[in-house]
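2024-03-11 09:14:02 DEBUG pipeline.ingest accepted 1 chain
2024-03-11 09:14:02 DEBUG pipeline.ingest length=291
2024-03-11 09:14:03 DEBUG pipeline.predict start
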Amino acid sequence: METLNYHHLRYFREVATEGHLGRTAARLNISQSAISIQIKQLEDRIGQSLFDRVGRSLVLTEAGRIALDYADRIYSTGDELLSTLNQTGTVSRPLRVGALSTLSRNFQLQFLRPLIANGSFNIALKSGNTKLLLEDLTTQILDVVLTTEVPHSETGVYFAAQKIAEQTVGLHGRADFMVQETLSDLLENVPLILPTESVIRAGFENLIVKLGVQPNIVANVDDMAMVRLLARDGIGVAVAPAVVLADEIIAGSVATSPFELGFVEPFYAVTLPRKFPHPALADLLNRQQQL
């Protein structure tokens, strides 16, 4: 299939914007006949008339208006390309963020809030497992990956992992669940909702070995949003950072146990060196360090 000739498209866009063939020819220092030929070839290619002549002016047809809309977007994308590679910052591109699927949605929002408030950049957010997200980071599909562990290189790629936060892991659920004399009693007598996220899981396993208890786990969950829903609906007590149920804790619908578990969940922003890094990323990471 024959591709579109963008040389033809450029001349069409110039005439469509000017609205007059003669003035366009004079401005571009080219003959009117040469421009007419270019536009005629474009019309033949797409099978539609692009202009109606009204007096001495050219008026876009319906097909012409559609073609101009696409042409504007095509050339706008070209401007964005030049802006990115020249690092002029005149055109923004989306910040592409990958987040571990078990990562709290509240934490993700907390991380992105300064960029959302700024309003100058769009955000493309993708969730998944660590392996796939790091592959996307390596192939430049993503700009940054949010995770809870420092990644290990298995392919000779060395990631930069900046710790951007650390949250104490606690027990959160219905207030009546918290009426226990000791932490051991709570872990053995109350239904527990345990995330499969490895840092929390490892900390929890170390805790129950230390206490010598058999915990009453009713759900192993690989999504923090589901952990939040189950705890909010009174199914059990969530083993999680408070940020996961921040809204419910503030509202008083979920209580936090006074017993300390003694471990934390760290959060990392993982990046790779880029010749053309996203202009918003460095500032976003610096803001997290200042919190």
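2024-03-11 09:14:41 DEBUG pipeline.report The CA atoms of residues 188 and 214 lie 6 Å apart.
2024-03-11 09:14:41 DEBUG pipeline.predict end
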